[in-house]
Amino acid sequence: MANTYTQLYFHIVFAVKGRKNHISKKWKDELYKYITGIVTNKNQKLMIINGMPDHIHLLIGTKPNCTLSDLVRDIKANSSKWINQKQLIKGKFEWQTGFGAFTVSQSGVNHVVDYIKNQEKHHRKKSFREEYIDALNAYEIDFNSEYIFTDD
């Protein structure tokens, strides 16, 4: 077969170090545009991005040559550098080590888009910790809760 055809979607979640509320409503849209540029420059497709002051969600369509951990590393490194260069917070901005990534089927894309779009509404009922643990359980990922929310 001469051509390769794929549909690879990842719902990615990562938090501000210590889950501090550093992402301000004043500049979050500018941050999201910057992250969109990072993903686009890596030849991947950012379908939606949204979050809360302490974490963000992304739905990314990837090509088979994309190494997910490298992509997330580049998003986190470049966006934190951008925040720090612009001095958008007092002190140093950092993302927490690690991330969550969950595969999404074509039939689940609209559900995930709606979920990401409605983060503020969703977090009136659930904390980030509850949301994250619920996702790990829903995807049947083995985890040790002792290490999920460390201050690294």
From TrEMBL:
Record NCBIfam families: transpos_IS200 (NF033573)
Coiled-coil region list: none
InterPro entries according to UniProt: Transposase_17 (IPR002686), Transposase_17_sf (IPR036515)
Pfam families: Y1_Tnp
Spans traversing the lipid bilayer: none
UniProt protein name: IS200/IS605 family transposase
Domain Transposase IS200-like positions: 5-119
Lineage top rank: taxon: Bacteria
